[in-house]
Each structure stands twice: as structure tokens, then as C-alpha cells.
Amino acid sequence: MASILVLDDSASVRDAIRLALTGLGHVVREAANGVQGLALAGRSKFDLILTDLNMPEMDGLAFIQNIRQRADHNGVPIVFITTESSPGVMQQAKKAGATGWIVKPFSADQLRRVVDKVLA
């Protein structure tokens, strides 16, 4: 299965995502912000990254812009997870390098479908 990095400043959101994805056999690593996410990506290669938009220290857009500059993670799919559903935010995410997005709140089934589609 896949190695997945999850970035979200909410521990409960990270827990829910981890439970849903480890139940499918994926290995999940967690970070509370973009700075921590970049540090983890510097030590491990991930097959998929799920990132929130609004986080302290480094938000999701800055994280995506930074990770896309690294050769080892340049082509890794990144799914933006956010409460924002405005077309402008989605356009910014896509321009930064996001592969897709899922709007909070979401169900475990919705998450699984998006992850399966992106990893296929």
C-alpha cells in the first residue's frame, strides 16, 4: 500500500484521516504544519500528500510550493483538504501544484474514494 503524509493543525482531523487510511493498509505519517511536513518529506519519500490550507508556521499553499521544488517529491500527488470551497482558493491550490482537493467536512468513504482515485 501507499506511504501517505497528512498535514493538518487539528489532531482530531489527522486522527480521523489516519484511522481511515491505515484501515486500508496505508502507512500514514502526520505533521501539524508545513514546516513539520517538509522535515518529514526530507527524511522519507511519500506516495501521496494530503494537506490542509490554514495551518500555523507554514500554510498549505506555501507547503505545496516548497515541496514542488524538491526533485524527490515533485511528481507526488497532493490533495488539498480545506473548509474553503471558493473557486479562487481552488485555483490558487491548483496553480501551486495541488493534484486535487476535498472539502471539509468529509466522510471516511469520500476520503477513501479520493485517495483511491489519486493513487490509481
Automatic annotation (TrEMBL):
Record carries keyword Magnesium: no
Modified residues annotated as 4-aspartylphosphate in this record: 52
Keywords annotated in UniProt: Phosphoprotein
Domain Response regulatory: 3-119
InterPro entries: Bact_response_regulator, CheY-like_superfamily, Sig_transdc_resp-reg_receiver
PANTHER family, A to Z: CHEMOTAXIS TWO-COMPONENT RESPONSE REGULATOR, STRESS RESPONSE REGULATOR PROTEIN 1
Record protein name field: Response regulator
Species of the source: Rhizomicrobium electricum
